[in-house]
Predict the structure.
Amino acid sequence: MGAVQGIQKRTVGLTTTCYNGLTMKKLILLLLILLIPVLALAQTAEDYYDRGIAKDELGDHKGAIQDYNKAIELNPKLAEAYYNRGNAKDELGEYKGDIQDFNKAIELRPNYPLAYINRGHRKHALGEDKGAMKDFNKVIELKPNYALAYYNRGVTKSSLADNRGALQDYNKSISLNPNYALAYYKRGNAKIKLGQKDSGCLDLSKAGEMEAFQAYDLIKKHCQ
């Protein structure tokens, strides 16, 4: 089974200028983690949520979950806290727990494309491709120009042996993001399965040039 492309995270959008071996972004995140406990009077749900994001960014996913838990305790309707807690659980391999959090985020915010795409990602990884398809369809309904959603739906269609449908989605993904190496790789593979060897090999070559190096294995198998 091909893998849909990874979990989409909320980032804090800070700059990455280097400062004495640390990026400025990491420096600010460290300050955020240090300051929030001191500012006890300011510990709102949003404060814990922001600190959870900072811990996530620094790789402390367990600590992030504790902060998201506290944010949810203070504000049970904070959809973003459930969404980011789901992402942190995914990082720790708690796959059923992450789907439950994405479900809750969607319950609170029915038009939350990132929650749908991450839930679809997890469903696909668990072999629940029909459920994943529904989630990717919803993402495309909400964000028609989201290249990743078409790519992920294409991968899921391939898993369901719908190579023609997958090819259409890879075409759309590439039209939206012409530098999408994995989409060229997957499209090349789909074309070869459909008997379009020459065109498929061209896509695989393009993918390899764009550093999707796994394409070279298929080139050795099908294009020489």
Notes: The beta strands are 18-19, 22-23. The first strand starts at residue 18 and ends at 19. The mean pLDDT is 86.
